[in-house]
Amino acid sequence: MRNTPRRKRYLVSRLNLSAIKAEFPILRREIRGKNRLIYLDSGATSQKPNSVMAAERDFYENHNAAVHRGAYQLAEEATELYEGARAKVAGFINADIDEVIFTKSATESINTIAYSLGSAKAGTRFHIRAGDRIVVSEMEHHANLIPWQELASRTGAELVWFKVSEEGRLDTSNIDELINERTKVVALTHQSNVLGTIVPLDQITAKAHSVGALFVLDACQSVPHYKVDAKALMVDFIAFSGHKMLGPTGVGILWGKKDLLDEMPPFLTGGSMIETVTMEGATYLDAPKRFEAGVPNMAQAIGLGAAVEYLNALGLDDIHAHEVELTKRALEGLQSITGLSIIGPKDLEMRGGVVSFAVQGIHPHDLGQALDQYGIAVRTGHHCAWPLMRRFKTIATTRASFYLYNDFDDIEALIDGVERARKYFQSR
Amino acid sequence: MELDSLYQEVIFEHYRRPLNKALKPNPTIQVRHTNTSCGDEITLNLHTDGKKIIEVSWDGIGCSISQAGTSVVSDLVIGRQIDEVLQIIEAFQAMILSKGSDSGDEKLIGDGVAFAGVSKFPARVKCALLGWMATKDAILQARCSDGEGK
Fold first, then answer.
1. Which helix (H) or strand (E) holds A76?
2. How far does A142 lie from chain B, in Å, by closest CA?
3. Which residue has the higher pLDDT, A8 or A26?
4. β-bridge mates for residue A357, sequence order
5. pLDDT tens, A34-88?
6. What percent of chain A is predicted at pLDDT more than 90?
7. Distances A368 to A115, A214, A375, A396, B14 between C-alpha atoms, Å
8. Within a 13 Å sphere around the CA of A140, how many CA atoms are in the beta-carbon half?
9. How far apart, in whole angstroms, are the C-alpha atoms of residue A202 and residue B76?
10. C-alpha neighbours within 13 Å on the C-beta side of residue A197
11. Surface of A (346-385) touching B: CB under 8 A
12. Could you give the CA distance from residue A67 to residue A407 in angstroms, rounded to a whole number?
């Protein structure tokens, strides 16, 4: 089956794509026969370079022991590697080391905040009660929506949300209504996993802080792709996942301001997070350990450290510039297809490498099935953003999302593949 | 090509011109089934006298496989005895879950055999079953509420 592009275009990238591709063994796989794998689902999870897999393997082969306990050499090495990974992640987002908490996923990171706030006692600054307000948006991934719905229902707080414009931008026209003196939490995505929209934060963070609300940022789609500076952003918490940024599954990050973290009630409790314990009660350590109960996902955290090193070596600015070029070509090529419409911004202003689209008369699941036959892996469905689908009066979209290992041939293959699929279904 | 083994002509016929796709009023039971992974959903109205399926009508949105599947099952079961219908559904389900080893009995499942190719695509099994499972659910619920009534 043919999947070399018809229109070959040589665009310039600042990345050395052939060297990069060589580091990702999975990209040599053949799919549904002899098709080259064209992986365009990095918004769901990224592929892993050799160095990340090697780091995990090396940990198990040479250093495996439970961290922060044991007086033997292996335990020391494991602790050093694990804490070294924390330092790497902290450097990556310009944070202090003690502000970086390893969780199992971004979903767990967000739940950690939501449950911690929910268990804050009456009279403390974090306490949330009936009449308080939690602000989200219509473009949230379920992971940054359901935990807040649940917190609202447990506490009696009111959940309100920013709407999304027809162009796929956050509508902040009613910000003064939404964020008021009763608002305790504002939880927003940094970049929509469906639309690719990057949310401008300055106005919203300023407003949130002016009323004393906490700001939680879901950075799953931003941290892997461009520079996110925890100190410059003026947010209180940031959640992101390791597996979307070349790291292993099973490790996520929660960043929070130290003074907040140290005061907040813990979420998961047990070993490793305590200061003293009696039969009647316990006191807890400060962050990050306060939020890392149990033996952590050590190999995964260390793998994430290797992923951060890989990203640093390439440079986030070059990665982002490359993805903007890919997105530019994808938007242009896809829109030349009859009956195809883009769901999300059609320009490159404040936009990441995620392109959602619909093809008239073809259900995304059918389109994705045809693309799979050509070796092209895209996501189809509601993308865990069901309310956003309703907003655009659809039940599902097809989504292509790009990363540093995608090249222009991948984009041409996508454009060709969609056109081919369209003709296939039209002829049936 | 492999895609053709999935997308049989019969499937497209049902997809383009679905049968019984308009909800009939006053059903014995109404069920709503969703494919949670893609958001496809159907609402299905069942009219039954407790022994026989009198009407199956439905509405919904979804991919070609789920829509055609619902069209096929609705057409197949109207007018049949409930016990027989449950057997038919079981036979279809067995074929769909067979990973390609069961090509289906046309005498029993009619146009359902066109979905034999779907069983080789695990991600689409739920699509193919959506209407069939809604029908089964409606029958079992009708049976339950019938039993309670007695």
1. helix A73-92
2. 13
3. A26
4. A342, A398
5. 999 999 999 999 999 999 999 999 999 999 999 998 899 999 999 999 999 999 9
6. 95
7. 37, 40, 10, 11, 20
8. 24
9. 59
10. 26
11. 363-366, 369-370, 373, 380-382
12. 40
Q: Is A379 in contact with A221 (CB distance < 8 Å)?
A: no
The per-residue b/e assignment along A89-111, b for 16 or more CB within 10 angstroms, e otherwise, is bbebbebeebbbbbbbbbbbbbb
CA distance A292 to A296: 7
Tell me the C-alpha distance between A35 and B2, whole Å.
Answer: 13
What's the whole-model pTM score? 0.93
Task: Considering only the beta carbons, identify the residue of B3, B41, B127 that sits closest to A365.
Answer: B127
Interface predicted TM-score (ipTM) over 0.95: no
Closest partner CB to A373 (pick from B3, B65, B127): B3
Task: Kindly state whether A333 is in contact with chain B, defined as any CB-CB distance less than 8 angstroms.
Answer: no
Q: How far apart are CA B99 and CA B119, in angstroms?
A: 5
The values of phi and psi at residue A164, to 5°, are -115, 135
What DSSP state is assigned to residue A239? E
Indicate the CATH number of A52-312 among 3.40.50.1100, 3.40.190.10, 3.40.640.10, 3.30.70.600.
Answer: 3.40.640.10
pLDDT at B150: 40
With contacts defined as CB-CB under 8 Å, which chain A residues touch B121?
369
The residue whose two tokens read 């350990």 is A289
pLDDT in tens, chain B (150 residues): 588 989 999 999 999 999 999 999 999 999 999 988 888 899 999 999 999 999 999 999 999 999 999 999 999 999 999 999 999 999 999 999 999 899 999 999 999 999 999 999 999 999 999 999 999 999 999 988 765 444
- Cα–Cα dist A20/A17, whole Å: 5
Residue B89 forms part of a structural domain: yes
Q: Does the annotation mark A220 as catalytic?
A: no
pLDDT at B146: 66
Consecutive H or E run containing A185: strand A183-189
Chain A residues in contact with B1 (beta carbon < 8 A): 373
Range of the domain at B12: 2-144
pLDDT band for position A13 (50/70/90)?
confident
Query: Residue A356 pairs with which residues in a beta bridge?
Result: A343, A399
Count of the separate structural domains present in chain B: 1
Choose the mutation target among B3, B5, B42 for the interface with A, i.e. most A CBs under 10 Å: B3
Query: What sections of A102-221 are H helices per DSSP?
Result: 106-118, 146-155, 175-178, 202-210
The CATH number for A17-44+315-427, chosen from 1.20.1530.20, 3.50.50.60, 3.90.1150.10, 3.20.20.150, is: 3.90.1150.10
**Nearest CA among A264, A262, A271 for reference residue A292:** A271
